[in-house]
Amino acid sequence: MLDDTARKLLRILFNLNRMHAAPLEVERLQLLAGRDISLIEATLHLLREERYIRWDQQAGIVQVMRLEEQPMAKYQHVFTD
Asked: Which fold has domain 4-80?
């Protein structure tokens, strides 16, 4: 389960990607999320490790992965409860 910052960033990224695919600026995320840059970068690393996003740090591009691209193990509790 994601913490509040991760959920907030994921929602912001989803909405930004839905409107247009554009390079990501961490400063823009800081403004939108109201969090420190170090916390945003740590959260982006977490979201990438958890396979919620693809993040090319060199190009500054973040892409939210579609549900079918994410591993099913994350959703196993939905089907077993």
From this structure: Arc Repressor Mutant, subunit A (1.10.10)
